[in-house]
């Protein structure tokens, strides 16, 4: 064996043997930029170690080019061109064969990685050697269960009561719908919230993140109803309320468990001991109390008014549950429950005859079937064309006994159509108000399922859109049809079923939110409440300053049944309603108010809008309204932050604020952070029918295209939609989704958060962050080799030690990284946190510092000075690895815990990185002057590497070089850094020329900048290729 290699490798060989085989493909390109080419694969030390193992002599001047730089670029080496026969498809050497070979090697490598089986809740065994490659499955196993068992995420309410607001971080999860599994939008929410929670916890704050699941009334009932009909051919009415609810509860149990699994897989540091479901006993108690209190205050009341009605779901909807679409003109649309397409976007005109005359008025409508409920025709009072018709009676063509009159009302636009408007008070919001002004009959001609009822005359029993056609034909037969034409309009669709929404007259429970909305607006204007980013302020003001009455009742079976009871015996002149937690309580109230005994009451069949219970979530989870001697409520309410997507700012966030003000007198949180919405790489909204809804587990564990498409059949998508989704998946993921791991997924999502209102997520970018995790693993594994068995960090780094130039530089950069990362978390700029930690670890610690450490650990340390230098280097390296893990922990929780546990002992080391202190900026480490020196040295090293590559040197070559600089101070500085520059540039000995020194012979010159030239020895090198290149350019 080579004695020089043996001498150089001494101590490091012993350390390498402890850590198993050298990581395949491990490289540490040096330099600050993307042009770095030096790699560990070509380092003489490792070459010598490999040779010693195999009994071969190292070759110092030749070898294959090694990939380098943060992007894995390969150094170009001039080689003679040889004509190659192009391989045939599928044969050895073809692209397909190479891919299959590479895949087989990767699979074999994965099989070689040992995965330690850890009993649930126990700490993972860290005594085994680190694997040669990063395996997310192995790294991410066991930690979540151990964290939970150790109670790291469960603060003691008694112990933390009275903590000042600056040291509290309390947050509730936006409870995902129990209807299914989490998608990447939920994962972004989880990544942001977990990163914040972990950061605050490491900063020493009382940190609590409360998990929960929402019962999602309409969504859940719709899913279960579709599944019931698909699997058994039954409707909920076939089963009855009690049996149907059993089916829904079974669905809930199945899916809530899956959601918990997903949250654990993405390392959510929630407190599972405080987990809530919006229909559990505690939340149900809060819902009853809130309804009863608001009803007593007069804010909740019952009224017969028009609601947004979904005939397919047979329930009322709030304005926010209606999707409005612009229809450009005549269009045919599909709706659920009707076999034919429905014609929309047309304006129909027909005649109403004036009773006893041959005169008539022509009216226009986009909803012809509603003429069956007309009770008047309106004209503008100043329209001279129709003044003679005011008060005249009209003949309804199909219900002759109905009284219809011509009314004068300023609501009519004289310039639109004929200037005559049919009035249907029970089926149009404007007509309803006109009917109230003119005391018109409110005639509801629809049944709850969207069919024409008995008041519709000969059309009774027909589907309303079938009646649209048959009414037209009947009008034609009576010679009352004028015609129809294409007409642009805006149409409302149910956001759940996609049925066309019908204004429908029905008694409902309503809530007056005006005062609570005003107080919520005031809280933001006066700075008591903060919304980040601030451009969402205008949305807040727009919604709350124009707030409408909230219809809070839903005609569903799944949800919180309304705690209101109607008196049924003895009969009353008008409906009498009383609230109560039980029928007995409501009966007592009724008997006291009505002054009679023997009253019988019945509870309302309807349930409350899901957003009503969700609006109580920030305080119902802590036991409100039972707040006496309630440690959780005292310690954790109000919460600190509400983090969610900006799409539910009014749906949920505003309602939480209003209801908390109304019921507790306090804001539920002082800050609202709204993140961007996740879209696919093409900017499209996530949709099951497009096949672009991604389960985070599919990215974490990887999935083939075949299995991805099989999952489409597990849901309730129609066959037509499944085929469309399969095409979308095949286009976006032709090879499936590779295994990335939870850390890479989280890091990738957080890196996207500077995109504004939307995040266009490209899964391939997440794969790139998986490679970063691999680099963190390999770099840490390499760095740990330097410590040995006996090293123990003293707990602090003394600055009076003889720190090397690179030691002081890396500490300055580490302190700057800590400053940037803390500021990023403080300002909710998560992409800046990923950039700061990524750049430090990759470009500064790996590319430069680890490379500069190698010469300091070569050999056996023959003297005390060398021993002291190595001890200092170990301490600085320990600080770099320790701080890097802690800085990245909120972003990469699993990987950093795994590596933190492998760090040598220290008096200040925590049991878990979860509870380790978060690094802060250290002013004493900051050295701007030294950082400027490194910038100069890096620029020169980069130019040397570029020149070396251009000249065709092999990566192993170490040519002699020279530097000339015109600035005297910089020249003196470069004199002292020639060894470091040599190492960073992959060159041999470097000499800094004096002012009077001539240009060295046998060299090729290159320009770094206007003050600096470099020279590389090229004696014996074949420069014919370079000369030909220059001649071609010339």
Question: Helix count?
Answer: 33
Write down the Rg.
Answer: 37 Å
What characteristic shape results from the CA principal axes? elongated
Structural class: alpha+beta
First-to-last CA distance: 50 Å
Please provide the count of β strands.
35
Unreliable residue stretches: 1-101, 107-111
Q: State the helical fraction.
A: 40-55%
User: Beta fraction of the residues?
Assistant: 15-25%
Largest sheet: 7 strands, mixed
* Mean model confidence by pLDDT: 87
Structure notes:
- This protein is of the alpha+beta class and 1034 residues long.
- Helix 1 (3-18) packs across helix 2, helix 14 (514-525) packs antiparallel against helix 15 and helix 26 packs across helix 30.
- The longest helix has 25 residues, at 241-265.
- It is elongated.
- It starts with a helix and ends with a helix.
Summary tags:
seven-stranded mixed sheet, single chain, alpha+beta, 33 helices, disordered N terminus, 1034 residues, elongated
Put the structure in a nutshell.
This protein is of the alpha+beta class and 1034 residues long. It has 33 helices and 35 strands.
Outline the secondary-structure elements.
Elements: H1 3-18, H2 44-54, E1 67-68, E2 73-74, H3 95-112, H4 136-140, H5 143-150, H6 157-160, E3 168-172, H7 184-202, E4 206-210, E5 212-213, H8 217-232, H9 236-239, H10 241-265, E6 276-277, H11 281-296, E7 300-310, E8 315-317, E9 322-327, E10 331-333, E11 342-344, E12 346-354, E13 360-365, E14 376-379, E15 393-395, E16 404-408, E17 420-423, H12 429-438, H13 464-477, E18 481-486, E19 489-494, E20 502-511, H14 514-525, E21 530-532, H15 537-545, E22 550-551, E23 553-554, E24 564-569, E25 577-579, H16 583-594, E26 600-603, E27 607-608, H17 610-614, H18 617-620, H19 631-636, E28 641-645, H20 649-664, E29 671-675, E30 677-680, H21 696-701, H22 705-710, H23 719-732, H24 742-751, E31 758-761, H25 763-784, H26 805-826, H27 830-853, H28 864-888, H29 893-901, H30 928-951, E32 961-965, H31 968-976, H32 978-985, E33 990-992, E34 1003-1009, E35 1012-1017, H33 1024-1033
Parallel strand pairs: 3-4, 5-6, 14-16, 21-29, 28-29, 30-31, 32-33
Antiparallel strand pairs: 1-2, 7-8, 7-20, 9-19, 10-11, 12-13, 12-15, 12-18, 14-17, 15-16, 20-22, 23-27, 24-25, 24-26, 32-35, 34-35
Helix pairs in contact: 1-2, 7-24, 14-15, 14-20, 24-25, 25-27, 26-27, 26-28, 26-30, 27-28, 28-29, 30-32
């Amino acid at each position: 064996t080579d004695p020089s290699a043996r001498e150089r490798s001494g101590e490091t060989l012993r350390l390498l043997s402890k850590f198993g085989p050298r990581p395949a493909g491990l490289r540490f390109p040096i330099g600050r930029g993307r042009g770095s080419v030096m790699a560990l694969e070509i380092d003489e030390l490792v070459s010598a170690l490999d040779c010693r193992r195999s009994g071969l002599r190292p070759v110092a001047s030749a070898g294959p080019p090694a990939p380098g730089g943060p992007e894995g670029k390969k150094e170009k080496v001039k080689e003679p061109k040889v004509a190659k026969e192009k391989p045939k498809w599928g044969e050895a050497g073809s692209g397909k064969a190479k891919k299959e070979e590479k895949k087989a090697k990767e699979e074999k490598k994965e099989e070689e990685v040992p995965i330690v089986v850890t009993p649930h809740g126990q700490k993972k065994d860290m005594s085994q050697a680190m694997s040669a490659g990063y395996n997310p499955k192995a790294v991410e196993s066991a930690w979540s269960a151990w964290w939970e068992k150790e109670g790291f995420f469960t603060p003691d309410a008694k112990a933390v009561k009275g903590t000042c607001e600056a040291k509290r971080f309390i947050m509730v999860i936006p409870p995902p719908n129990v209807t299914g599994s989490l998608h990447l939008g939920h994962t972004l929410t989880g990544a942001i919230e977990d990163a914040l929670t972990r950061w605050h916890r490491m900063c020493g704050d009382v940190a609590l993140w409360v998990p929960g699941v929402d019962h999602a009334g309409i969504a859940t009932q719709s899913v279960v109803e579709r599944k019931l009909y698909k699997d058994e051919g039954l409707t909920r009415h076939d089963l009855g309320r009690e049996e149907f609810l059993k089916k829904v509860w079974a669905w809930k149990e199945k899916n809530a468990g899956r959601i918990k699994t997903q949250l654990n897989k993405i390392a959510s540091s929630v407190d599972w001991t405080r987990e809530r479901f919006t229909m559990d006993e505690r939340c149900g108690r809060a819902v009853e109390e809130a309804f009863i209190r608001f009803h007593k205050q007069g804010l909740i009341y019952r009224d017969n008014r028009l609601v947004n009605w979904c005939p397919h779901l047979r329930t009322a909807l709030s304005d926010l549950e209606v999707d409005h679409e612009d229809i450009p003109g005549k269009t045919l649309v599909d709706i659920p429950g009707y076999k034919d397409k429905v014609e929309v976007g047309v304006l129909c005109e027909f005649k109403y005859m004036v009773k006893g005359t041959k005169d008539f008025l022509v009216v226009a409508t986009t909803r012809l079937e509603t003429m069956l409920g007309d009770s008047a025709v309106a004209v503008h009072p100043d329209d001279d064309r129709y003044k003679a018709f005011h008060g005249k009676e009209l003949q309804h063509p199909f219900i002759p006994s109905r009284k219809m009159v011509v009314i004068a009302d300023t609501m009519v636009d004289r310039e639109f159509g004929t200037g005559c408007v049919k009035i249907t008070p029970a089926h149009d919001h404007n007509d309803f108000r006109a009917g109230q002004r003119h005391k018109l009959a409110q005639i509801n001609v629809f049944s709850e399922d969207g069919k024409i009822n008995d008041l519709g005359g000969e059309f009774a029993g027909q589907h309303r859109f079938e009646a649209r056609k048959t009414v037209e034909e009947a009008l034609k037969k009576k010679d009352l049809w004028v015609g129809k034409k294409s007409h642009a309009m805006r149409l409302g669709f149910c956001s759940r079923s996609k049925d066309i929404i019908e204004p429908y007259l029905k008694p409902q429970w309503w809530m007056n939110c005006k005062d609570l909305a005003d107080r919520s607006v005031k809280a933001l204007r006066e700075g008591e409440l903060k919304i980040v980013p601030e451009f969402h302020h205008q949305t807040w003001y727009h919604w709350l300053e124009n707030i409408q009455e909230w219809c809070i009742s839903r005609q569903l079976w799944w949800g919180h049944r309304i705690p209101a009871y109607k008196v049924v015996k003895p009969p009353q002149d008008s409906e009498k309603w009383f609230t109560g937690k039980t029928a007995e309580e409501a009966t007592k109230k009724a008997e006291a108010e009505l002054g009679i005994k023997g009253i019988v009451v019945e509870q309302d069949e309807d349930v409350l809008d899901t957003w009503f219970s969700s609006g109580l979530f920030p305080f119902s989870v802590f036991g409100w309204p039972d707040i006496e001697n309630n440690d959780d409520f005292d310690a954790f309410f109000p919460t600190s932050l509400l983090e969610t997507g900006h799409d539910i700012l009014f749906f949920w966030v505003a309602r939480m604020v209003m209801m908390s003000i109304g019921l507790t007198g306090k804001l539920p949180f002082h800050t609202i952070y709204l993140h961007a919405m996740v879209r696919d790489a093409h900017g499209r909204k996530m949709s099951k029918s497009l096949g672009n809804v991604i389960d985070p587990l599919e990215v974490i564990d990887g999935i083939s295209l075949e299995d991805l498409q099989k999952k489409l059949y597990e849901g309730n998508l129609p066959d037509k939609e499944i085929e469309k989704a399969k095409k979308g998946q095949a286009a976006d993921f032709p090879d499936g989704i590779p295994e990335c791991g939870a850390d890479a997924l989280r890091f990738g999502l957080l890196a996207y958060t500077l995109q504004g209102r939307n995040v266009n997520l490209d899964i391939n970018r997440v794969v790139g962050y998986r490679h970063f995790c691999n680099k963190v693993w390999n770099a840490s594994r390499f760095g740990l080799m330097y410590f040995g068995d006996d090293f123990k960090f003293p707990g602090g780094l003394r600055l009076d030690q003889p720190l090397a130039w690179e030691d002081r530089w890396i500490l300055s950069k580490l302190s700057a990284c800590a400053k940037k990362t803390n500021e990023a978390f403080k300002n909710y700029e998560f992409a800046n946190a990923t950039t700061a930690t990524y750049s430090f670890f990759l470009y500064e610690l790996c590319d430069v510092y680890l490379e500069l450490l190698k010469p300091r650990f070569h050999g056996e340390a023959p003297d005390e000075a060398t021993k002291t230098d190595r001890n200092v280097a170990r301490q600085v390296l320990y600080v770099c690895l320790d701080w890097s893990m802690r800085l990245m922990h909120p972003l990469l929780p699993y990987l950093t815990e795994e590596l933190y546990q492998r760090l040598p002992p220290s008096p200040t080391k925590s049991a878990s990185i979860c509870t380790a202190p978060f690094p802060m900026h250290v002013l004493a480490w900051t050295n701007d002057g030294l950082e400027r020196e490194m910038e100069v040295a890096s620029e020169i090293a980069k130019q040397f590497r570029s020149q070396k590559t251009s000249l065709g040197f092999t990566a192993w070559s170490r040519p002699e070089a020279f530097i000339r600089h015109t600035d005297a101070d910089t020249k003196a500085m470069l004199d002292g850094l020639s060894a470091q520059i040599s190492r960073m540039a992959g060159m041999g000995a470097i000499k800094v020329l004096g002012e009077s020194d001539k240009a060295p012979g046998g060299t090729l010159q290159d320009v770094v900048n206007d003050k600096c030239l470099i020279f590389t020895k090229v004696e014996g090198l074949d420069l014919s290729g370079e000369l030909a290149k220059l001649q071609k350019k010339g």
